[in-house]
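All the exercises in this workshop are built on plain-text protein records. There is nothing in a record beyond a sequence line and a structure line. A learned vocabulary of local backbone shapes supplies the integers on the structure line. The question running through the whole workshop is how a given chain folds. Here is such a record, shown just as it appears in the course material:

***
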Amino acid sequence: NFAKTLGIEDYYYIEAPCALDSKKAPIRCVDKYKVSYSNKNTVLPILAKLSKQICEKHKGQKGLIHTHSMEILGFVKREMGNDNRYLYREPGISNEDIYKQHKERGDDTVMVSPSMTHGIDLKDNLGEFQIIIKAPYSPLGDDRIKKKFNEDKAWYQNNMLSTLIQACGRCNRVKSDYAVTYILDGAAVDAIRRNLDKLP
């Protein structure tokens, strides 16, 4: 799909084994709640509450909550209240801003952002747990995404899985890392089950 979308016809695919120990990167899945546009106002408060419980379980550890959208970030923020443990990506506050605080503060901060699935390195104690609230499907309101979806449904699914894999890797960066990932959206869990043959 990657080659196809770029118009590349002549290429080689090489797969190498992962150098990290999967036993040090457990993924815990909750398949009870599936987030959809029609049920989001019912399900997202439940997942925000569950996220809070997970964060309390990991008291004393730094973490990351992937919200996928600013709307979901709002649900999480309402649940967490005024607890300054949580660092939010909000208008006027960039991912770089909250990452800097997260790195410099000595306490158990938790970053909450819709856009930290790629390009952030939370090795060692910077990321000992993370929560993925929703399957990271690209927005079908975007004309380009909608066109690609209509042309190739497999691309849309694979794009989500690729982003999900990237999100899972934010806290497991070096061989000595131990970090647990929680996936709370049953739709993501269903997609994993359907696509086990494609996943590492």
Notes: The longest helix spans residues 40-57. The beta strands are 27-29, 63-66, 86-88, 110-113, 129-132, 180-183.
